[in-house]
Amino acid sequence: MTLMKAVSATLSLLLLFMGLAGASEYAFGTKVLAGDSDIGRPLFALPAGTTVAFWDTGIVPGYDDTDVVYLVTPPVASLTVKANDVRLTHFGMLPPGSKVTPIDNDIGMPLTLFPPGSSIIFVDLFGSQAYDLGDPVYVHRGSAFVTLVNDVRLNVTPGFGLMPGTKLRDFEPDLNKVIAAALVPLPKGPGSSLAFFDVNGNGVYDYSDDVYMNVPSGAPGGAVTVNNVRLSGPV
Question: Per residue of the chain (235 residues), what is the pLDDT tens digit?
Fold first, then answer.
């Protein structure tokens, strides 16, 4: 029996390793560059209705700097943290870009949707009037025309050095910057602007899969391209 258990455990680890062999090694919040190993990987659209929500962890009701922000997939009828949701900000020792597992302490916590008009946006840092590799990307609450306190950075902000998964605070250099355009309205509609690479090839979105903001491509049946933002980290 002991030998059989050992063989079973070894096979399980081998299958897990094989399933993750194609996973991206790049960090959450990095942009895809020419020559990166994940260029050209096929992408599948996350379900329509995929959106961003927050767990109100603070004593004072309402969204603030202590709340954990998640990328959540449907169903959202009873909105709670569920397995495979992606943390866009840190939770304790769990970093931005990590996925929720059934044994994590935030599983089942109540979530609140961001207000209507919220979106993933970019700031035109270099004045090209187009979404460029150097432009910073944020989860932006509501429909204001400038970046707001507690908007969430989704990539390293060039020239500012501020890290993905952090929230904007008073007096920071990327606060109150004019928003160029919404890249992904929230909740997400049909299409592949938020998409995943099916690492284990099982045809559904699950724990091992890499998540991308597939902009500027955004076409169904698309692939990882330069300037995509990685929205999950290595598992």
Answer: 344 333 333 333 333 434 455 667 899 999 999 999 999 999 999 999 999 999 999 888 899 999 999 999 988 667 999 999 999 999 999 999 999 999 999 999 999 999 999 999 999 988 888 999 999 999 999 999 999 999 999 998 776 778 999 999 999 999 999 999 999 999 998 888 999 999 999 999 999 999 999 998 777 668 999 999 999 998 7
Q: Whole-model pTM above 0.90? A: no
Domain ranges of the chain: 24-46+188-235, 49-114, 116-185
Cα–Cα distance measured from residue 188 to residue 73, given in angstroms and rounded to the nearest whole number: 10
Asked if 211 and 29 count as a contact pair (C-beta separation under 8 A), the reply is no
**Is the CB of residue 234 less than 8 Å from the CB of residue 24?**
yes
